[in-house]
Amino acid sequence: MANHKSAAKRARQSIRRNIVNNKRKSVVKTAEKKLVKAISLKDLTLAQELLKKFTSFVDKAAKNKVVSKNHASRKKSNLSAKVHLLTK
Length: 88
What we know:
- The chain is mainly alpha-helical.
- The protein contains three helices and no strands.
- The mean pLDDT is 96.
């Protein structure tokens, strides 16, 4: 346990931020799973819609440093390429 008032506050903040960050990561992972499922079903319109949502979620997570910018960029690139292949 923290010995100083400021250390106790930082511990409380850390716990709160951990909960929020885990929620954000969960939202990103769920959106990715839904998008991958739509791609595997070859549903172009649903995949395009879910790609927009996924991009938004992963960008927000990267902005808040829940995931790295490179991680977000790589995921967006890979999944958008797979959605693009459905158009052909």
